[in-house]
Amino acid sequence: MHASKYHINTLKEAPAEAEVKSHQLMTRAGMIRKAAGGIYTYMPLGLRILRKIENIVREEMDKAGAIELLMPVVQPAELWVESGRWEQYGAELLRIKDRHQRDFVLQPTSEEVITDIARNEIHSWRQLPLNFYHIQTKFRDERRPRFGLMRGREFTMKDAYSFDRDEASAQSSYDAMYDAYMRIFTRLGLTFRAVAADTGSIGGSRSHEFQVIADTGEDLIVYNPDTQYAANIELAEAACLIPQRGAATDALNKTSTPDAPKCELVAQQLGKPLSDTVKSIVLATDNPDDPAQATIWLLLLRGDHDLNEVKTSKLEGFENGYRFATEAEILDSFGCVPGYLGPINTIKPVTIIADRTVANMSNFICGANTEGFHYTGVNWGRDLPEAKVADLRNVVAGDPANDGGQLAIQRGIEVGHVFFLGDKYSKALNATFLETDGKPALLQMGCYGIGISRIAAAAIEQCHDEKGIIWPKSIAPFELVICPMGWHKSETVRNTAETLYQELKAQGVEVMLDDRDVRPGIMFADWELIGVPLRITIGDRGLKDGIVEIQARRQEAADKVAVADALQHAL
Ligand code: ATP
Ligand code: MG
Ligand code: MG
Ligand code: MG
């Protein structure tokens, strides 16, 4: 590739809205351009990176026995109604109508379509196991699209779906994907950790996330450096019910007993928006001084309220726009029975112990000690104050899965997720096969996602400097750039550069020759920003002594190499 015939357009400044390095650097390097919030054009350089990531993922999926197909982005609502997700998914699911007013969705994942394929294609145990995957555009109408490719609304995901005869065989399929993911993220050149993850509404214990370690990550992971234990803190929190709301935390601590012998979730809302009419959630107690005697209420507030008003008003005014959540509402909003909440009809003055606006909430978990019947803890979502992180270590140490020892906490970016589904979807869509005895049995399923476009951003978060991006060689848009000094003036430089370029190309190296008429300073700055791992500089001065300069992106100074050795040195 000759740069003069390619499209390179670097920017001095990043857009003001770009909060994290990957967003800033990808925009400045001309890899992405915004079309709308969370929706980007992958510019030529950006697309090369995505294709590299895709190819590594594809190779390892194929090696692991998965079979590629391609499912549609636009999917009929009927299948989503059948699975129940048309109702359950909430606002992240983009629903559209065609000209005949028929409902469709833009796929956020493809469990429905693949299960429909499976029920039509798989007839006999002889066809199993099977694992289908595709690499396709996804759409999720994220509440807060931000950080560029990290949390887009339109993004590229690899999603695979395994089908097995029974649980034991499904476990083997899961393990094969887990192993493939280990190989994929190693080949991508990323520092990552596989962590146990929350299985949310599906339940069961088999779910792992693959987290790229980076300070800007939105997830917190806890791990024990001495053992195998590593978990997303969402899981650890669900197990231990850690109170973690900044200002309210002190109050919560007074009424919480993190070491309670038995905790149970009383309400859980993970990524699922509350009903439109609920504006905020309030936890209140009628006896803050003696938690053992206290009753705790969960209140769903319907409007904007002065909490003092709520506090002093004995909570009788059911008509005044706030009221206790009814069992049915909690069931509806959280999908679980509020068995341990205070009696709905008790009227007493209360003390607010925590409150949260629904709009700012990505997760909500509330727990209670089933033995003392008092309040245990609440998790309001991801935006954990940094100061609380240290405190969490002690609490998480109580997780039964962690067999003792000091725990460490890191931030991570979720780039992959493997999930054992069991018969959740096969049951809903009646996807069966005939067993050896001729009787129909439900397919056992697993699903396995990788955020292709998010990986590009995660790699940058993990590796950059003040000059720009530092790509791992495996996913760099070009492996090497030749920078001729005086291309337009010196025939010797031109010939040497062009010969080396052809030789490198013949060796299969993805090489860029920068034949643009720009000053050396600008040329170097561009390629440092773009993050090409290796640069060869060719100039008359060096050529007089028969040398060129070769410098790795991470290297402080260049190596002087004889022209004759340059090719070997660069390979
Ligand atoms: P998150 O917790 O970050 O919202 P998720 O758990 O909702 O992610 P999954 O449903 O597990 O995501 O999807 C599989 C993978 O798709 C994730 O591991 C992540 O790499 C990627 N992904 C999910 N949401 C986005 C997004 N909005 N933008 C880019 N990649 C995403
Ligand atoms: Mg999500
Ligand atoms: Mg997640
Ligand atoms: Mg996930």
UniProtKB/TrEMBL annotation:
- What name appears for this protein in its UniProt entry? Proline--tRNA ligase
Taxon lineage? Bacteria, Pseudomonadati, Pseudomonadota, Betaproteobacteria, Burkholderiales
Domain comment from the record reads as follows: Consists of three domains: the N-terminal catalytic domain, the editing domain and the C-terminal anticodon-binding domain.
Family statement: Belongs to the class-II aminoacyl-tRNA synthetase family. ProS type 1 subfamily.
List, in alphabetical order, the Gene Ontology terms for molecular function in this entry: aminoacyl-tRNA deacylase activity; ATP binding; proline-tRNA ligase activity
So what does this thing catalyse?
A: tRNA(Pro) + L-proline + ATP = L-prolyl-tRNA(Pro) + AMP + diphosphate
Q: Name one Pfam family in it.
A: tRNA_edit
Q: Which SUPFAM superfamilies match?
A: Class II aaRS ABD-related, Class II aaRS and biotin synthetases, YbaK/ProRS associated domain
E.C. number, please?
Answer: 6.1.1.15
Give the species: Pollutimonas harenae
* Function per UniProt: Catalyzes the attachment of proline to tRNA(Pro) in a two-step reaction: proline is first activated by ATP to form Pro-AMP and then transferred to the acceptor end of tRNA(Pro). As ProRS can inadvertently accommodate and process non-cognate amino acids such as alanine and cysteine, to avoid such errors it has two additional distinct editing activities against alanine. One activity is designated as 'pretransfer' editing and involves the tRNA(Pro)-independent hydrolysis of activated Ala-AMP.
